[in-house]
Protein backbone atom coordinates (compact mmCIF):
# COMPACT_ATOMS: atom_id res chain seq x y z
CA UNK A 1 0.00 0.00 0.00
CA UNK A 2 1.36 3.42 -0.84
CA UNK A 3 0.93 6.74 0.97
CA UNK A 4 -2.17 7.61 -1.06
CA UNK A 5 -4.08 4.60 0.24
CA UNK A 6 -3.85 2.69 -3.01
CA UNK A 7 -3.37 -1.04 -2.64
CA UNK A 8 -1.30 -2.94 -5.18
CA UNK A 9 -2.25 -6.53 -5.87
CA UNK A 10 -0.21 -9.29 -7.42
CA UNK A 11 -1.07 -10.88 -10.72
CA UNK A 12 -0.07 -14.53 -11.03
CA UNK A 13 -0.05 -16.87 -14.02
CA UNK A 14 -0.80 -20.56 -13.51
CA UNK A 15 0.70 -22.73 -16.26
CA UNK A 16 -0.58 -26.32 -16.30
CA UNK A 17 0.35 -27.67 -19.74
CA UNK A 18 1.32 -31.34 -19.93
CA UNK A 19 3.21 -33.37 -22.52
CA UNK A 20 3.56 -36.47 -20.35
CA UNK A 21 1.44 -37.80 -17.51
CA UNK A 22 -1.56 -35.58 -16.74
CA UNK A 23 -2.92 -35.24 -13.22
CA UNK A 24 -6.69 -35.17 -12.97
CA UNK A 25 -6.29 -32.85 -9.97
CA UNK A 26 -5.25 -29.91 -12.18
CA UNK A 27 -8.77 -28.40 -12.57
CA UNK A 28 -9.40 -28.85 -8.84
CA UNK A 29 -6.11 -27.12 -8.06
CA UNK A 30 -6.83 -24.16 -10.34
CA UNK A 31 -10.27 -23.71 -8.79
CA UNK A 32 -8.82 -23.92 -5.28
CA UNK A 33 -6.21 -21.28 -6.02
CA UNK A 34 -8.69 -18.88 -7.57
CA UNK A 35 -11.21 -19.40 -4.75
CA UNK A 36 -8.76 -18.06 -2.17
CA UNK A 37 -6.86 -15.48 -4.20
CA UNK A 38 -8.19 -12.61 -2.11
CA UNK A 39 -6.46 -14.06 0.95
CA UNK A 40 -3.11 -12.97 -0.51
CA UNK A 41 -4.38 -9.91 -2.37
CA UNK A 42 -3.74 -11.49 -5.75
CA UNK A 43 -5.49 -12.47 -8.93
CA UNK A 44 -4.76 -15.67 -10.86
CA UNK A 45 -4.90 -16.21 -14.60
CA UNK A 46 -4.38 -19.68 -16.03
CA UNK A 47 -3.32 -21.05 -19.39
CA UNK A 48 -1.98 -24.16 -21.11
CA UNK A 49 -1.07 -22.26 -24.26
CA UNK A 50 2.72 -22.06 -24.69
CA UNK A 51 2.36 -19.15 -27.13
CA UNK A 52 1.51 -16.98 -24.12
CA UNK A 53 5.16 -17.16 -23.04
CA UNK A 54 6.33 -13.92 -24.61
CA UNK A 55 8.21 -11.02 -23.06
CA UNK A 56 5.16 -8.77 -23.34
CA UNK A 57 2.70 -11.14 -21.68
CA UNK A 58 4.97 -12.44 -18.93
CA UNK A 59 5.98 -8.90 -17.97
CA UNK A 60 2.47 -8.43 -16.51
CA UNK A 61 2.95 -11.12 -13.86
CA UNK A 62 4.43 -11.03 -10.38
CA UNK A 63 4.77 -14.81 -10.23
CA UNK A 64 4.61 -17.84 -12.50
CA UNK A 65 3.18 -21.05 -11.06
CA UNK A 66 3.99 -24.28 -12.88
CA UNK A 67 1.18 -26.53 -11.69
CA UNK A 68 1.74 -30.28 -12.23
CA UNK A 69 3.30 -29.64 -15.63
CA UNK A 70 5.07 -32.51 -17.37
CA UNK A 71 7.34 -32.82 -20.37
CA UNK A 72 8.52 -30.34 -22.96
CA UNK A 73 5.80 -27.72 -22.48
CA UNK A 74 7.65 -24.73 -23.99
CA UNK A 75 9.35 -24.18 -27.32
CA UNK A 76 12.62 -22.29 -27.78
CA UNK A 77 10.94 -18.89 -27.93
CA UNK A 78 8.89 -19.63 -24.83
CA UNK A 79 11.95 -20.71 -22.90
CA UNK A 80 13.75 -17.52 -23.89
CA UNK A 81 10.85 -15.39 -22.66
CA UNK A 82 10.76 -17.37 -19.41
CA UNK A 83 14.50 -16.84 -18.91
CA UNK A 84 14.11 -13.11 -19.60
CA UNK A 85 11.27 -12.93 -17.07
CA UNK A 86 13.46 -14.48 -14.39
CA UNK A 87 16.35 -12.16 -15.29
CA UNK A 88 14.08 -9.18 -14.63
CA UNK A 89 13.20 -10.25 -11.10
CA UNK A 90 10.23 -12.49 -11.85
CA UNK A 91 9.36 -15.09 -9.22
CA UNK A 92 8.64 -18.78 -9.63
CA UNK A 93 6.58 -21.47 -7.90
CA UNK A 94 6.75 -25.12 -8.91
CA UNK A 95 4.18 -27.66 -7.72
CA UNK A 96 4.30 -31.48 -7.80
CA UNK A 97 5.31 -32.81 -11.24
CA UNK A 98 6.71 -29.47 -12.38
CA UNK A 99 9.98 -31.22 -11.46
CA UNK A 100 9.33 -33.62 -14.38
CA UNK A 101 9.23 -30.74 -16.86
CA UNK A 102 11.73 -29.19 -19.32
CA UNK A 103 14.29 -31.75 -18.22
CA UNK A 104 16.94 -30.59 -20.71
CA UNK A 105 16.62 -26.88 -19.91
CA UNK A 106 19.39 -25.94 -17.52
CA UNK A 107 18.03 -22.63 -16.26
CA UNK A 108 14.69 -24.26 -15.47
CA UNK A 109 16.29 -27.08 -13.48
CA UNK A 110 18.32 -24.54 -11.52
CA UNK A 111 15.32 -22.28 -10.86
CA UNK A 112 13.29 -25.26 -9.69
CA UNK A 113 16.12 -26.79 -7.66
CA UNK A 114 16.20 -30.42 -8.82
CA UNK A 115 14.49 -32.87 -11.17
CA UNK A 116 12.13 -35.72 -10.34
CA UNK A 117 13.58 -39.24 -10.46
CA UNK A 118 10.78 -41.54 -9.26
CA UNK A 119 8.21 -41.77 -6.46
CA UNK A 120 7.07 -44.37 -4.03
CA UNK A 121 3.53 -45.68 -4.46
CA UNK A 122 0.76 -43.38 -3.31
CA UNK A 123 0.34 -43.95 0.43
CA UNK A 124 0.09 -42.29 3.81
CA UNK A 125 3.39 -41.11 5.24
CA UNK A 126 4.89 -38.59 7.62
CA UNK A 127 6.44 -35.27 6.63
CA UNK A 128 8.89 -33.57 8.97
CA UNK A 129 8.48 -29.79 8.97
CA UNK A 130 12.01 -28.44 9.36
CA UNK A 131 11.20 -24.76 9.93
CA UNK A 132 7.92 -23.63 11.48
CA UNK A 133 8.88 -19.95 11.40
CA UNK A 134 8.64 -19.55 7.62
CA UNK A 135 5.24 -18.51 6.18
CA UNK A 136 5.46 -21.52 3.86
CA UNK A 137 5.16 -23.85 6.84
CA UNK A 138 3.99 -21.71 9.75
CA UNK A 139 0.48 -23.22 9.86
CA UNK A 140 1.65 -26.83 9.61
CA UNK A 141 2.20 -29.25 12.50
CA UNK A 142 5.82 -30.21 13.15
CA UNK A 143 4.93 -33.78 12.18
CA UNK A 144 2.52 -33.70 9.25
CA UNK A 145 0.66 -36.80 8.09
CA UNK A 146 -0.15 -36.76 4.38
CA UNK A 147 -1.40 -39.05 1.63
CA UNK A 148 0.71 -38.37 -1.42
CA UNK A 149 3.64 -39.58 -3.50
CA UNK A 150 7.04 -39.35 -1.80
CA UNK A 151 9.21 -37.99 -4.61
CA UNK A 152 12.87 -38.81 -5.07
CA UNK A 153 15.13 -36.42 -6.96
CA UNK A 154 18.15 -36.51 -9.22
CA UNK A 155 20.21 -34.11 -7.10
CA UNK A 156 20.27 -32.30 -3.79
CA UNK A 157 18.58 -28.88 -4.14
CA UNK A 158 20.80 -27.65 -1.31
CA UNK A 159 23.72 -27.81 -3.76
CA UNK A 160 22.14 -24.82 -5.54
CA UNK A 161 21.64 -22.91 -2.31
CA UNK A 162 18.07 -24.02 -1.64
CA UNK A 163 16.74 -24.35 1.89
CA UNK A 164 14.75 -27.54 2.45
CA UNK A 165 11.70 -26.99 4.66
CA UNK A 166 9.79 -30.28 4.28
CA UNK A 167 11.41 -33.70 4.49
CA UNK A 168 10.02 -37.20 4.10
CA UNK A 169 10.30 -39.44 7.14
CA UNK A 170 11.58 -42.49 5.29
CA UNK A 171 10.67 -44.83 8.14
CA UNK A 172 6.98 -44.00 7.68
CA UNK A 173 6.42 -45.49 4.20
CA UNK A 174 7.46 -48.24 1.83
CA UNK A 175 9.66 -47.42 -1.15
CA UNK A 176 10.73 -50.35 -3.31
CA UNK A 177 12.39 -48.20 -5.98
CA UNK A 178 16.09 -48.06 -6.71
CA UNK A 179 17.86 -44.88 -5.63
CA UNK A 180 20.24 -43.84 -8.38
CA UNK A 181 21.10 -40.33 -7.21
CA UNK A 182 22.21 -38.51 -4.09
CA UNK A 183 19.41 -36.15 -3.10
CA UNK A 184 20.90 -35.39 0.31
CA UNK A 185 19.50 -35.77 3.80
CA UNK A 186 17.05 -35.21 5.21
CA UNK A 187 14.98 -36.39 2.22
CA UNK A 188 13.83 -33.18 0.46
CA UNK A 189 10.15 -32.69 -0.41
CA UNK A 190 9.82 -28.88 -0.48
CA UNK A 191 12.32 -26.06 -0.54
CA UNK A 192 12.87 -22.41 -1.36
CA UNK A 193 15.58 -20.26 -2.89
CA UNK A 194 16.04 -16.68 -1.70
CA UNK A 195 17.68 -15.95 -5.04
CA UNK A 196 16.48 -18.25 -7.81
CA UNK A 197 19.45 -20.04 -9.37
CA UNK A 198 17.91 -19.94 -12.85
CA UNK A 199 18.71 -16.27 -13.37
CA UNK A 200 21.50 -15.42 -15.83
CA UNK A 201 24.61 -13.54 -14.76
CA UNK A 202 23.76 -9.88 -14.27
CA UNK A 203 20.05 -10.54 -13.84
CA UNK A 204 17.83 -9.65 -10.90
CA UNK A 205 17.13 -12.89 -9.05
CA UNK A 206 13.64 -13.22 -7.61
CA UNK A 207 12.59 -15.88 -5.13
CA UNK A 208 11.72 -19.47 -6.02
CA UNK A 209 9.64 -22.10 -4.18
CA UNK A 210 8.96 -25.76 -4.97
CA UNK A 211 6.82 -28.41 -3.31
CA UNK A 212 6.53 -32.00 -4.49
CA UNK A 213 3.15 -32.52 -2.81
CA UNK A 214 -0.22 -32.08 -4.54
CA UNK A 215 -1.07 -35.31 -6.36
CA UNK A 216 -4.67 -35.90 -5.29
CA UNK A 217 -7.86 -33.90 -5.81
CA UNK A 218 -8.51 -34.28 -2.08
CA UNK A 219 -5.17 -32.67 -1.27
CA UNK A 220 -6.33 -29.44 -2.88
CA UNK A 221 -9.32 -29.39 -0.54
CA UNK A 222 -7.15 -29.70 2.57
CA UNK A 223 -6.66 -26.51 4.58
CA UNK A 224 -3.18 -27.43 5.80
CA UNK A 225 -1.96 -28.13 2.29
CA UNK A 226 -3.49 -24.91 0.98
CA UNK A 227 -1.75 -22.96 3.75
CA UNK A 228 1.51 -24.47 2.51
CA UNK A 229 0.81 -23.46 -1.11
CA UNK A 230 -0.41 -19.95 -0.35
CA UNK A 231 2.40 -19.50 2.12
CA UNK A 232 4.88 -20.34 -0.64
CA UNK A 233 3.27 -18.01 -3.17
CA UNK A 234 3.15 -15.18 -0.61
CA UNK A 235 6.77 -15.78 0.33
CA UNK A 236 8.07 -15.44 -3.23
CA UNK A 237 6.06 -12.25 -3.74
CA UNK A 238 7.46 -10.72 -0.55
CA UNK A 239 10.93 -10.84 -2.05
CA UNK A 240 9.93 -7.40 -3.40
CA UNK A 241 11.41 -7.90 -6.87
CA UNK A 242 8.16 -7.32 -8.80
CA UNK A 243 5.78 -4.40 -9.15
CA UNK A 244 3.16 -5.69 -6.71
CA UNK A 245 5.47 -4.78 -3.84
CA UNK A 246 8.16 -2.71 -5.53
CA UNK A 247 7.25 0.24 -7.74
CA UNK A 248 10.70 0.03 -9.32
CA UNK A 249 10.18 -3.60 -10.36
CA UNK A 250 10.71 -4.48 -14.00
CA UNK A 251 7.90 -7.06 -14.21
CA UNK A 252 4.56 -7.51 -12.49
CA UNK A 253 1.13 -6.01 -12.25
CA UNK A 254 0.85 -2.28 -12.89
CA UNK A 255 -2.78 -2.01 -11.85
CA UNK A 256 -4.02 -0.93 -8.46
CA UNK A 257 -7.25 -1.15 -6.55
CA UNK A 258 -8.73 1.19 -3.95
CA UNK A 259 -8.12 0.12 -0.38
CA UNK A 260 -11.23 -1.85 0.52
CA UNK A 261 -11.73 -5.13 2.40
CA UNK A 262 -10.44 -7.95 0.21
CA UNK A 263 -13.77 -9.77 0.29
CA UNK A 264 -15.38 -6.89 -1.60
CA UNK A 265 -12.48 -6.08 -3.89
CA UNK A 266 -13.45 -6.18 -7.56
CA UNK A 267 -10.60 -7.74 -9.54
CA UNK A 268 -10.31 -6.18 -12.97
CA UNK A 269 -7.09 -7.42 -14.55
CA UNK A 270 -5.88 -6.05 -17.83
CA UNK A 271 -7.53 -7.68 -20.84
CA UNK A 272 -6.29 -11.23 -21.20
CA UNK A 273 -4.36 -12.25 -24.26
CA UNK A 274 -5.80 -15.08 -26.31
CA UNK A 275 -5.43 -18.33 -24.41
CA UNK A 276 -5.42 -16.80 -20.94
CA UNK A 277 -8.27 -17.38 -18.55
CA UNK A 278 -8.68 -14.61 -16.03
CA UNK A 279 -11.03 -14.59 -13.03
CA UNK A 280 -13.55 -12.51 -14.96
CA UNK A 281 -13.40 -14.80 -17.99
CA UNK A 282 -13.97 -17.95 -15.98
CA UNK A 283 -16.78 -16.76 -13.73
Q: Can you walk me through this structure?
A:
With 283 residues, the protein is an alpha/beta fold. Helices cover 18% and strands 23% of the residues. It has six helices and 13 strands. The strands form three sheets. It has a nine-stranded mixed beta sheet, covered by helices on one side. α1 (26-35) links the parallel β2 and β3 (42-47). The two termini are 27 Å apart.
Task: Fill in the keyword field for this structure.
6 helices, 13 strands, disordered C terminus, 9-stranded mixed β-sheet, 283 residues, two-stranded antiparallel ribbon, globular, 23% strand, single chain, disordered N terminus, alpha/beta
What secondary-structure arrangement, pairings included, does this model have?
Elements: E1 6-8, E2 10-15, H1 26-35, E3 42-47, H2 55-58, E4 63-67, H3 76-87, E5 91-95, H4 106-112, E6 116-119, E7 123-129, E8 143-148, E9 151-153, E10 163-168, E11 188-193, E12 208-211, H5 223-237, E13 256-258, H6 279-282
Parallel strand pairs: 2-3, 2-4, 4-5, 5-12
Antiparallel strand pairs: 1-13, 6-9, 7-8, 7-10, 10-11, 11-12
Summary, kept brief:
It is built from 6 helices and 13 strands. The chain is an alpha/beta fold. It has a 9-stranded mixed sheet, covered by helices on one side. Strands 1-13 form a two-stranded antiparallel ribbon. Strands 6-9 form a two-stranded antiparallel ribbon.
Amino acid sequence: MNMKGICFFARILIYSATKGFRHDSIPTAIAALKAKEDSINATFDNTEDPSQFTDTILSNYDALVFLSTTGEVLDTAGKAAFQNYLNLGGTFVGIHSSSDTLRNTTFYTRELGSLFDYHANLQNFTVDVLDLSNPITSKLPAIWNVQDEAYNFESDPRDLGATVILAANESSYVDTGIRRFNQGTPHPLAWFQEHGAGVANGGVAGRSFYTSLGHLNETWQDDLFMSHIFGGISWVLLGNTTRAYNSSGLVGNLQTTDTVPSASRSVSPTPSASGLQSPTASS
